[in-house]
Write a structure and sequence with these properties.
170 residues; alpha+beta; Glutaredoxin; 2 domains; 4 strands; 48% helix; elongated; binds FE2/S2 (inorganic) cluster
Length: 170
């Protein structure tokens, strides 16, 4: 998935109309396919692009939003580069996922469903991710981290942050 356009003003379509037109032309007439293409490109569904899609394809904006909000895989706001998904399935709940969620929320300064201002982290909850024996678990991309405590959960976020800093060092 493409990382959200940092600092891009997507309310101004003038210099992006050609790019958006190409994107939508390639997606075809199916609304879900168009939404998937938009999200692949921008990392979320920018309001301005949804308005463009509505006008271009003659689909009422309410219907566009109806579909966009029906599927949990679509996002109406930019997501962080790292999405920390705290498993809240039964085993993880019993194992203390609430504490893990609180610790990450406190550390990152965001609530579940929110993204940090620097777009580095989004905090989410998820159902069972399939490694209950390691509960409590968080999933980040394809990686899962298990048997977490409040401290080790925050350490996961710190390690991701440190890796970013290292990558950014010339
Ligand atoms: S309940 Fe969390 S991995 Fe299964």
């Amino acid at each position: 998935m493409a990382f959200p356009l940092e600092n891009a003003d997507l309310t101004d379509l003038h210099d992006r109309s050609e790019e958006i037109e190409d994107l939508l032309a390639g997606a075809g007439p199916d609304l879900v396919s168009a939404l998937q293409a938009i999200q692949r490109r921008y990392g979320f569904l920018p309001r301005s692009v949804l308005r463009h899609l509505s006008r271009r394809n003659g689909i009422p904006l309410a219907r566009v939003y109806g579909v966009a909000t029906f599927y949990s895989s679509f996002f109406l706001a930019p997501r962080g580069k790292h999405v920390l998904r705290v498993c809240c399935g039964t085993a993880c709940h019993v194992g203390g996922s609430t504490r893990i969620l609180e610790a990450l929320s406190d550390d990152l300064g965001i609530q579940p469903g929110e993204t940090t201002e620097d777009f580095q982290f989004t905090l989410d909850t998820v159902g069972c991710v399939g490694c209950c024996s390691l509960a409590p678990v968080i999933a980040v991309g394809d990686e899962s981290y298990g048997r977490l405590t409040r401290t080790s959960a925050v350490d996961v976020a710190a390690a991701l942050r440190a890796a970013e800093d290292t990558d950014a060092t010339p």
